[in-house]
């Protein structure tokens, strides 16, 4: 489905629910649109199930944009095999603890598990980066084991420390900078995820695995135990 979202953008919806095959489809369609050489193309913004295409309204209108995009979308839908996307594997160290993850104990209790089992289940999954947004370098990843899925906090924190690892429903993410946030925090990562000069460490389609580390290793890697 293609629909207008503003005077200079259309939204392509590929699915109604998150699916691990979607990053490959979205990446493939993004490449097709960029490779088509549309002179009116300004930007492409991928998300979990959608692709937003930004165009120059001074040189083209909505109908002609749709006409240009539709053959590429139809080609994507007609593919017999689901596209594959290997993506880079990025390993991120995490100091899981109640010291760095203030919601770890409560999440464990609500899941009927102990903290060690929550950590094991969170770190035993290889996650796919589905989208970037909210803040520079903030990567939405999925999906966590359903047994440790947790809804966002009803009252977001005014300040979440940089590097905090959180869960929201079946998504997981690392806060690249200190910022407000409502995700359930279970640990902290010492690896910088955003550098203004190098931009985001993670990209859509990347695979991410979290590796538990000790308090000492966390501090040695430059991690900070800010409240």
Strand-helix topology:
Elements: E1 2-6, E2 9-13, H1 22-35, E3 41-46, E4 50-55, H2 62-78, E5 89-96, H3 104-111, H4 115-123, E6 127-132, E7 139-142, E8 157-160, E9 164-168, E10 171-174, E11 179-181, E12 184-188, E13 194-195, E14 199-200, E15 207-212, H5 215-220
Report what the structure shows.
With 227 residues, the protein is of the alpha+beta class. 24% of the residues lie in helices and 31% in strands. The chain has a seven-stranded mixed beta barrel with strand order 5-12-9-10-7-6-15. It has a four-stranded antiparallel sheet with strand order 1-2-4-3, covered by helices on one side. The protein has a two-stranded antiparallel ribbon with strand order 8-11. The radius of gyration is 19 Å and the shape is elongated. The N and C termini lie far apart (45 Å). The model has no long low-confidence stretch (mean pLDDT 91).
Summarize, please.
GO terms for molecular function: 5-oxoprolinase (ATP-hydrolyzing) activity. The protein is of the alpha+beta class. 24% of the residues lie in helices and 31% in strands.
User: What's the quaternary structure here?
Assistant: single chain
Could you tell me the CATH topology label of the largest domain: Cyclophilin
Architecture (CATH level 2) name of the largest domain: Beta Barrel
Uncertain ranges: none
Give the helix/strand class: alpha+beta
Overall number of domains: 2
Largest sheet: 7 strands, mixed, barrel
Series of secondary-structure elements, N-terminal to C-terminal: EEHEEHEHHEEEEEEEEEEH
**Strand adjacency order, main sheet:** 5-12-9-10-7-6-15
Portion in strands:
25-35%
Contiguous helical run count: 5
Number of strands: 15
End-to-end CA span = 45 Å
Rounded average pLDDT:
91
Q: How helical, in percent, are the residues?
A: 10-25%
